[in-house]
Amino acid sequence: MSSQVQIALKNALRTGVILFVFALIGTALLAFTHARTEPTITRGQLEAKRALLSQVLPAALYDNDLLSSQQSVPPDDLLGTRQASALWLARRGGEFSGVVLEAVAPDGYSGDIALLIGIDANGRVTGVRVTAHRETPGLGDYIDRAKSAWVDQFAGKSLAGPEPKHWKVAKDGGVFDARAGATITPRAVVKAVKSALDYFARHRAAFAAPVRGQAPPPAKETNP
Amino acid sequence: MMTMDEFRSLFHNGLIKQNTGLVQLLGLCPLLAISNNVINALSLGLATTLVMAASSGAVSGVRNFVPNEIRIPVFVLIIAALVTVIDLSMNAFVHPLYLVLGIFIPLITTNCIVLARADAFAAKNRPLHSVIDAIAMGLGLTLVLIVLGAIREIAGQGTLLSGIDLVFGEAAKGFVLHVLPDYQGFLLAILPPGAFIALGLLIAANNWYKARATQRARTGLPVAA
Q1: Which residues of A touch B (CB under 8 A)?
Q2: What is the pTM of this model?
Q3: A14:B77 CB<8 A
Q4: Are the Cβ atoms of B91 and A22 closer than 8 angstroms?
Q5: Which residues of A touch B166 (CB under 8 A)?
Q6: Using CA atoms, how far apart are residues A81 and A89, in angstroms rounded to an integer?
Q7: For residues B58 and B152, is the Cβ–Cβ distance under 8 A?
Q8: CA A129 to CA A137: how far, in whole Å?
Q9: By CA distance, what is B167's nearest residue in A?
Q10: Is-contact B52 B83, C-beta < 8 A?
């Protein structure tokens, strides 16, 4: 009886040790790969972020390191954000020349549409990119720059032109195209870009303040 | 080494007899999610093949050191570690390829076909055979994915190979085929239910073909369709 228990125990110990050795080898392999690849991956991610920023804000507009100008702003209704979001302040020769805002269109056809919006010092949109969305493939996903050039029509628009009442899709009497059969998605994006411009108008003075690294103004209305 | 016959039978097994998509019905989760166009399907298929070949080879290499009782946890550990290593290495060293296949690699970890082949084949066979088997199985899955992707893309958007520029660069944009010009689109085909329906039809066609072949072999006469 006791010898049977002993054999069972010995067996359990043996398999336990083998499992442990495999876990150890697996962990070592992962730690090694992680250590080897991490610098390259981080560099690649920064590069990708920089490339994305330069898509919404032309590189000619600024001479500062846009990535390191990143600031965090509290949630704001005009940005559609429910969590703190990031913005990047562009300067040329020390002068404020533009900003890239992270915004959310909360009323897409299937949930949030995450946007990156570039605005120059005069309040003109320099570019818009959809960075994440769950719109219907083949129907509402043409807002994605990889699928169509639809978002390009925002470039050069401001609150001065078209007038605020024309910041709508064509179907609602506005100036922005939308494809038949999928108006909810573009409607949400147009609305979000317009609110971002409103946000910019409200905070422009703080963006243009010469002191670098200053925290942006707290949002006037924050939702819980 | 392996003989030509073994090689052929492994491929016949993977591509036709035990096709993972149509016969074994394993790993359907990513299969149904990703097969909404041909390019996505091809990318996922190739990524799966790569991961299966690597994990089958590794499992087969250590099969004599793994006690039977703990083989599943050990295989899961090997596959998970290997997939993560492939994911990290691709991200760091072949970044353009990673941008295309990257989102599919974590999906593959959840794909039971990888574990199934490790347990059913690689745990009992030599490394070379296991790798060949994994490649054959992966290619079988890739074929089904491509057919499914083509059906859904034509029915859903009226195109073929849309998104090819994401894989082969802007120059490839001209390869997109507009099979049905001015097509309004058929949403159901693109959404998940379309995947179930299309796969069901494919399995039915495969079963019908096999039944017919068996019947023909039994009677020795051609059967009226």
Answers
A1: 14-15, 18-19, 22-23, 26, 29-30, 33-34, 36-37, 40-41, 44, 136-139, 146, 181
A2: 0.69
A3: no
A4: no
A5: 146
A6: 19
A7: no
A8: 17
A9: A146
A10: no
B157 in A contact zone (CB under 8 Å):
yes
- Domain definitions of chain A by residue range: 1-56, 59-208
Task: Kindly list the strands in the beta sheet with A70-73, ordered across the sheet, starting from the edge strand earlier in the chain.
Answer: A70-73, A85-92, A95-108, A111-120, A125-132
C-alpha B38 chain-centroid distance: 13
Contacts of A53 (CB under 8 A, 6+ apart): A66, A67, A88, A100, A116, A118
* H helices present in chain A, as ranges: 2-56, 184-208
Convert the pLDDT of each residue in B126-136 to its tens digit. 899 899 999 99
ipTM of this complex:
0.71
A137 and B80: CB-CB below 8 Å?
no
Sequence-separated (6 or more) residues with CB below 8 Å from residue A90: A57, A61, A62, A64, A66, A69, A96, A97, A98, A99, A100
Structure tokens at A19: 């499992």
A36 contacts in B (CB within 8 Å)? 92
Query: Minimal Cα–Cα distance from A26 to chain B, Å?
Result: 6
Q: Are B30 and B107 in contact (CB under 8 A)?
A: yes
Q: Which two tokens stand for residue A36?
A: 């080897």
CA torsion B186-B191-B194-B195 (nearest 10°) is: 140
**Cβ-based neighbours of B150, under 8 Å, separated by 6 or more:** B38, B41, B160
B158: its two tokens:
């009226």
The per-residue pLDDT for A221 is 47
- B90 touches A at CB < 8 Å: no
pLDDT value, residue A219: 47
pLDDT in tens, A52-82: 888 888 888 888 888 888 888 888 888 888 8
Cβ atoms of B53 and B138 closer than 8 Å: yes
Q: With an 8 Å Cβ cutoff, is B67 touching chain A?
A: yes
Query: Which string of b and e fits A180-190 if b means at least 16 CB within 10 Å?
Result: eebbebbbbbb
- Does residue A106 have a cis bond before it (omega within 30 degrees)? no
Tell me the C-alpha distance between A105 and B14, whole Å.
46
Q: How many CB pairs under 8 A join A and B?
A: 65
Regions of chain A short of the pLDDT cut 50: 213-215, 218-224
